[in-house]
Amino acid sequence: MAFQFKTLARRMALAGTVAAVALGALASTASAKDYLLTGSHSGKLFLFDPAKRTLVREISLPGGTPLGVQPSSDGKIVYVMNDKLGALNGVELDTGKPVFHASLSDGDVRGKGFVGLALSRDDKELYAVVYRTRLHKTEYEVLQPEIQVFSVADGLNAKPVRTFPVARQTAQIHFSTDGSKLYAIGANVDILDPKTGAKQDSFPLRDGNRPNLSAPDMLAIWSQHSQTNVWTAPIFSARTDLPQTDPAAFQTGIMQLDLASGQMRMDEFENTSHVIFSSTLNPANRDEVYTVYTQLSKVNIRDKTLVKRVELDHTYYAINISADGKEVYVGGTMDDIAVYDTATLSKIGSMSLPDGSDMAASWMQIVKRD
């Protein structure tokens, strides 16, 4: 009986420890706040608290103006594509201390990135799509584009730990939520093994054959899917069964790539009448997509209908959304981030970059920090 009692006591103590750890993890997750992170032409990063509408931190970057902005999952390190798109740099978000640097060029081969930047799900490796040119004395030789993979532990003198070829016109790259797949988005969406680069599958875009629709034209520049793990982008297609004079001959839609399930879909929702640059999915209602350019639009993607559209103060390139789906943030282009109510599309706030410099096409990311 004593043995049974001691065994039971040990099991109860172990269960209590496990429960405490689990509750602590849940509390930590629940306590994490959303911050907005973006860059500017002044070669800086800006971290905003959107709930308070205040600037929290301003960081000067080595290498100048950033385009791609990729925070680590714990919100402590931020990696950027900058130095005229010729290098990757990483800094501590709390101190601004440089902790990572990698040149995309090697010898007589000049490498340039664009918007293909992704951090592995375990935060250990940084991936970049690199377009390469060999510089001869009298000519330039265009080489095969490749994905260069870096270990972030290599610090300020990082070199690729491996490379593999990637299709031309590849723009963005994104990891599946389990980290086993790398989606390379370009003329088509190729599914790659992130360790070897082997092509596992492909979703056809240019090579697709949707009834009565041309291959979609897609603008894939901004990465703003961290709240849902569903990457979205605007698409534009032509109806092949209608004359070009028909108002319905050109269609605007949304592409969705679910990084958890691996499912991809494309849905047209209106005759093309307005330009859309980027989009984001509502984490609280996944039937809702918000899009931005000169107007802010709310789309019911299940019903394939435009719900509401409002004019903006000026053009905005980037868009993101709060974790509770109640506020949408529009930024990029100029020096302000505007806040809108998702239910009414009424403007309810704004935040400004203190130096007045443009964000241009810099990504506007959500960072979760305790």
UniProtKB/TrEMBL annotation:
Coiled coil: none annotated. Residues 1-32 form the signal peptide. PROSITE patterns: TAT (PS51318). Keywords: Signal. The keyword Thylakoid does not apply. The keyword 4Fe-4S does not apply. This is Quinohemoprotein amine dehydrogenase, beta subunit. It comes from Insolitispirillum peregrinum. The lineage of its organism: Bacteria, Pseudomonadati, Pseudomonadota, Alphaproteobacteria, Rhodospirillales.
